[in-house]
């Protein structure tokens, strides 16, 4: 079954009025036959093949997004645990727990629940999926430490098909419920949606799904990449930092500072310095120009913003107006901006590498520029009366000049129609599907079961309610299985309280006249026949009897069956005086032609969307590779710690500290290296991010990497022909891991700056196997 999420058509095309009773069902049947004309199960033309490839691609993006979410959770957990290890505060049993987070799932290990339990879980998860209010309530009840695991199940499993309209709309219905409760309990307007709560975590996680990632890449990637190409463009406007940079440069050039430029000045003194002001003035102009280019790009891309994100903005506006009827448009806009910019746009601007928009970490100056741009966009969206940092007030003209424009944009974002009518149809259709299923791990199954059991009195106080009945029947939740045994199972979803619909067309006949049904089905078959016989597609007006006859006399059994059937249907419609042979069945012919024009235009849109999503999928897969490499580094680190712990007779003291500054270094018998790398090699691999070595001298520069003991390293910079190193740096692998944990991605070797993640990768590749 197709849906508008299978196609790149705008949700804005849907009828804005609320349809009920007969109207709803007539609309639903029209929708049903329109979908039949678009689906690829019966027709095999170019559009059908492209739609199938697009659906497959969207399925792969959904599945890969979940894998990345799980890996990111693992990396976050290990970052925090490694921090304890770095500080020598982790016991041996805690190390073993960390090690378990690095185990791969073994598909041969682990037990499935028995058939009875599986049936109960099938009923339970159908109920949870189709009635989102239960999950919405649960999300409000769990703690912040529990929310990530629940979000994994909700965002990537229960509603994991990110491009399928029914699941997407059910998920948005859940958001509406959660947001509504958030507004009901809010005590302060300014803190709404800004605190780090389970609800805000939900909203951020939602933006990281496939459609959100696709938008960020298509809209921001080019703009950010063009900015970070200018590695030496320094746009710092903090007077204190500008003063320090200026005096450092003067001292480096002349060897001393004049008396009128003392060190250790106050921010006010720095801001009052005329030279500092002269440096900052052109930077302010350039920053405002760059921020304006970002803003124009974002505003111009409004139609590309995923429907779900726009719909959440619409709910924020609606709930704010109800809760705070006296709130101004600007105040309402600041709440919408708090979601759209704070949770969606700005994190990608500040750390584009984490959102897979750029390769590697931007250099120091572009990184700072991106941070300033994000601050400017946030100030514009929040419309504060003052800047948190005094120096940011210098950029107030940008805020003042764009207030009206941003407010219009934030309000226009909300102008999307609701989906309740199509959701009603989708839910109805779901009962006719025999393949409604989710792919869920045993631990997701048991964790959701456990959380429901903990909060069942609040979720379902009445023991006659369906959720309570299913939870009581399941009994206590099984414990979490070891990571190695956490298999993924295919869980069929069905309801024990709803009767499956065997024939959707027959089920709707009671509310739509038989002549309406006959007309729509006839039109649908003609559309399919023209698509199946492309040689007649361009011959307008269509001779419908001739098309039916031609199909009925082909060698294709399916076409023959349809041709004979549609000839009879056309005759019946003529007897009912709904169509007329005398005018060449003009009404039917025009509607068939219009449907085919729509499908022809759709093919171009499908191909365009497929090209865009191909790039998104490649990026997501690349990010998966990066996350896996991080986990591999943790494995190597833990192995080194265990070796050191054994050597020290069980004392968990981290890795031996090497003494620095020319003092004696302890070299064990396990010393490895030196391994030699040229400046050009490290630059090509992206390990050297910045270099102050003059181009003419770079061919004579090389680096020696040595490991005196497991987990400890010496990086020495050499010049050909000289015996002694120009400089040496002693470090432990936990120094690098700590930098990575704190998002400090640069290692300063005075003459060169190295990329920390890539240095870790090089050390692993060079020493782990030999260790």
From TrEMBL:
Region (Disordered): 1-21
Entries under InterPro entries matching the protein: RasGAP_C, RasGAP_CS, RasGAP_dom, Rho_GTPase_activation_prot
GO molecular function: GTPase activator activity
Superkingdom of source: Eukaryota
GO annotations of cellular component type: cell cortex
Bias (Polar residues) ranges: 1-12
GO BP annotation list: negative regulation of Ras protein signal transduction
Keyword S-adenosyl-L-methionine: no
UniProt xrefs under PROSITE patterns: RAS_GTPASE_ACTIV_1, RAS_GTPASE_ACTIV_2
Residue ranges of every copy of the Ras-GAP domain listed in the record: 166-382
Coiled coil region boundaries: 40-67
UniProt xrefs under CDD domains: RasGAP_GAPA
Keywords: Coiled coil
Designated name of the protein: Ras GTPase-activating protein
Species the sequence originates in: Schizopora paradoxa
